[in-house]
Design a protein that fits this description.
heterodimer; A: alpha+beta; four-stranded antiparallel beta sheet; 38% helix; B: mainly alpha
Chain lengths: 135, 137
C-alpha cells in the first residue's frame, strides 16, 4: 500500500564562499539524495544570495535554495538527515504544504462561487474557468 | 470571581481575602491580563464578564492615554490575504518590533487565527535566518 504523497517545501542555505560550480554540484547532490530517498522534486528555485539575520556558522550571508517536493513523510526524514550531513548546507527547514494548499483551494473555491453569484454579468470574464460550478 | 470584581472597583485597597499576607493582595496593575484598551469587547481576560465592555477600557488605573483606539481591523481579513508564508519577509516584518520581538495582537489589531498563523510563520522565518531572533545590539 503506497504511502500518502505529501507536498513539502524544503528551503536550505548553502554557504556563500564556494565557487559557482561547487554550489551547482551541491544542489544537484541534494536533488539526487531526494530522488534516492523516494521523493519527486517538483521545482528547484534559487533565491540568490541574501544577508542572514544572524550569523550561522560564522557566515553572514548565504545562498538560499527552495525545493518543492512531493513524497512520503519517511522519505522526507531521510532527506533531512542527509541535508544535515551535507557540509555546505548550513541551515534547512522543511515545511509541509499539502494541507495548506487544500485549505487555500477551498477558500478560493468559496470565494469564486460567491463572486459568481453576486455580479452575474460583470464577472463572467474575470471568473476562473477551471473552477467547477458546484459549490 | 468576587475578588476580581472588587479589585476592579477599588484601586488601592487590598483584596478582601481573609489571609493577610497573601501575595495576590495588592491590586496594583500587576494583574496578568493585559488592559483591554482598544479591543475592549474583544478581550475580557481573567473572567471579567463584560466589565469594560461599553466603556473605553483601562478602568480604574487610568491606563495609557490612547485606550480607545479607533477600532483596529485585521489587516489580513481586510486585504483578504490568504496565505501567510514564512518567505515574505516584508509582510512579516511589519508585525515584528525593532528588537525582533513579535508584536502582540492588541497593538496590531490582527484577529486571532491570523495572529496564530503569523506567529508560526515568523518563527519559521526566524529558524531559516530570514528574521532575527533578537536584533539590535
Amino acid at each position: 500500500m503506497p504511502q500518502q504523497q505529501r507536498a513539502y517545501e524544503v528551503m536550505f542555505i548553502v554557504r556563500p564562499d564556494l565557487p559557482e560550480e561547487e554550489t551547482d554540484r551541491v544542489i544537484s547532490t541534494v536533488e539526487s539524495n531526494a530522488t534516492t530517498a523516494g521523493i519527486t522534486v517538483k521545482n528547484v528555485e534559487r533565491m540568490g544570495k541574501r544577508r542572514l539575520a544572524y550569523k550561522v556558522r560564522k557566515f553572514q550571508d548565504g545562498l538560499y535554495v527552495l525545493l518543492t517536493v512531493e513524497g512520503p513523510g519517511s522519505a522526507l526524514a531521510e532527506l533531512e538527515r542527509r541535508l544535515r550531513v551535507t557540509e555546505p548546507v548550513i541551515k534547512y527547514i522543511s515545511v509541509r504544504i499539502d494541507e495548506e494548499q487544500k485549505r487555500l483551494a477551498k477558500v478560493k473555491k468559496i470565494r469564486d462561487s460567491k463572486v459568481r453569484q453576486r455580479p452575474q454579468t460583470a464577472e463572467t470574464a474575470a471568473g476562473s474557468e477551471p473552477a467547477p460550478a458546484t459549490a | 470571581m468576587a475578588d476580581e470584581e472588587k479589585k476592579e472597583v477599588t484601586t488601592t485597597s487590598e483584596a478582601p481575602a481573609p489571609t493577610p499576607a497573601s501575595p495576590a493582595a495588592p491590586s496594583a496593575p500587576a494583574s496578568p491580563g493585559p488592559r483591554p484598551y482598544g479591543r475592549g469587547p474583544g478581550g475580557p481576560r481573567g473572567g471579567r464578564p463584560g466589565g469594560p465592555g461599553g466603556r473605553p477600557g483601562g478602568r480604574g488605573e487610568g491606563g495609557p492615554r490612547k485606550f480607545f483606539r479607533r477600532k483596529k481591523v485585521c489587516k489580513f481579513c481586510v486585504e483578504k490575504i490568504d496565505s501567510i508564508n514564512y518567505k515574505d519577509v516584508r509582510l512579516l516584518g511589519q508585525f515584528v518590533a525593532e528588537r525582533g520581538k513579535i508584536v502582540p495582537r492588541r497593538l496590531t489589531g490582527v484577529c486571532t487565527p491570523h495572529q496564530r498563523r503569523l506567529t508560526a510563520a515568523i518563527k519559521q522565518a526566524r529558524n531559516i535566518a530570514l528574521l532575527p531572533f533578537a536584533a539590535r545590539y
